[in-house]
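Quick one:
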Amino acid sequence: MTVYNRLQKVAAALVGTTLFVSGSFKLMDPVGTGLIVDEYWKLFHLGFMAPASQVFGIILSLTETLLGVALVTGIFRKTVRLTAASLVGFFTLVTLVLLLVNPAMDCGCFGEWIHLSHTASFLKNLVLLALCAVFLFPKVEDPSRRPRYVAAGLIAAAVLFGTVWSIRYIPVNDYTEFAPGVELAAAQVFDGEESEPTYRYARGGEEKSFSLSEIDAAEEAGWTFVDVDTPVNPSAAPHEDVVALPFLDRDDRPADTLAVQGPVMIVSVYDTPRMKEKRWKQAAAFLREASEAGFRPILLVEAPLQELDMQLAGLPAGDRTLLQSCSYQADRRKLLALNRDNGGASYFADGMLVRKWARRNLPDKNKLDSVLRESPVEYMMVSSTQGRVALHGYFLYALAIALLL
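Output:
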């Protein structure tokens, strides 16, 4: 094998590894990937494609990941190399648009794991494109061996298993602002007056801040979300991180102080129309058990509470009364970051986020009792470690198989 052929193999391995890692992190958070795709639809004025954002994101990320597997293992060389180069070229053009337009969004190259500036993401793709040019036209085609296909199949099986798991549950490792271990800050009080976070929007070069109750009208008027401005108490330590989860009661008053008092179990619903009667009954049963175990039950929804009442009208009186008594309105973006599952649960202990569950694996009454008996810090560390071990095991498994070639 010539030096040039070796250089081609190294270039293919580098591009393949990047595609594999990038695609894997997006597959592990399909909801977040759908949000990234949705931002691109808006950027290119394709808003009508929004309902397909998550499906498109999963398909594109799965293609990216499997192309990475094929490049590293060296199967179907000609087809894979040409397809990979085309995909990288497409990503390069997209990031060039981001660089020129400079929208208030992240490229989403690595999901929530790494956030790159528009310049960095464009330069990264330029380097990958240059590497693709190195391996695109091999002078000598090595004969494919059966072990290559076996290795690719084993890694692809792990990718598909992880993808299905992430679609059905929640990411094994959390890179959102609401990762386990963060401290929750309620509305701050300055000089006797309560101050809640405001939502900064832009329109036509102008920026303006709105309260939580005003953001729906602002979005209807064409304002685009930029960021959340969270008030920080000047008496707090300068190194203290503030993570806000603002929500309003039925009188449109801030009620997020409830989430920082004792053990709290929050069921979050960021898409109320998709919550059918069976899911509402499940949420009611879970919150009832959580209350009996000693948690403060809270239901956070993105819809106005009057609309929630209409949706709950068909439930049994007991379930309806329970859900209405602990329901509050929050911002949809915050709920999406809090728990990726629509109807999932999040456990807070005196404002510290301890653990999250998808609605498919909510703890039962006995588990809730045992959770309260454990130290919140120790329980958080154990559950978070399990997620990191699963993530590291996934990448080590793929690396070990690739090294056996």
